[in-house]
Amino acid sequence: MSDPAIGRLHPLPAADALTDGDLTALYDDPRRAPWVRVNFVSSLDGAATVQGLSAGLGGDADHRVFDLLRRLCDVVVVGAGTVRAEGYGAMRVDRAAQRAREGAGLAAHPVFAIVSAHLELDPGSAVFTDAPVRPLVVTTEAAPRRQREALAAVADVLVCGVDRVDPAAMVAALADRGLARIHCEGGPHLFADLIAAGVVDELCLTVSPLLVAGTASRIAAGATPDVPLELELAHVLNADGTLLLRYVRP
Description:
Layout: E1 7-10, H1 20-27, E2 35-43, H2 60-70, E3 75-79, H3 80-85, H4 95-103, E4 111-115, H5 126-129, E5 136-139, H6 145-152, E6 156-159, H7 167-176, E7 181-184, H8 188-197, E8 202-208, E9 232-239, E10 242-248
Parallel strand pairs: 2-7, 2-8, 3-4, 3-7, 4-5, 5-6
Antiparallel strand pairs: 1-9, 8-10, 9-10
């Protein structure tokens, strides 16, 4: 199957049928280190899921950019609830992505960092047993000690916070390990915590041309920042009515 056509609407001049190289150039410009990018998809009416999963919102263009963004990071950060709900396996990219990453001076695969305050994770799952790179588990001092020890056999456990994961401490701990390009794929509660901590540098938001209604959650739900975080528009891409928006922190 050929790649879905993606064109640029902003900034001008507009462009049609962007190549993977064009798209990589549009997204590959972190302005400082560490750099925290968050990637989400939403319906026109603000739903983050369809029947409980984000997969019902993302089309071919969203999947194409989703895969490209994994080529550009050191670490993919995901909340444990999203790992379970969305059926994540090991963090493994295909051979083309491996070659692109290695050509850019990155490791063949990004590190997978799972955020879990209570460590409700199975050490025997493919997330750990099939991982090409030893994963990370980001947790708290209050996490169950026995479960922490079990996970330490299959992952490096980072303690970042007392009873809640401290996003700023997590970003600092990842940067200390040389993982400065941080790419977060959700979920909504982790995103809200990142916003409240003021550590979000970029949001890549796909707006799907669907109206969902119902009781689906927003892309960020939970913690509230003292002051809303202002971002500026970097680009707008279009693929048959699906908008791919990129906002960055000034």
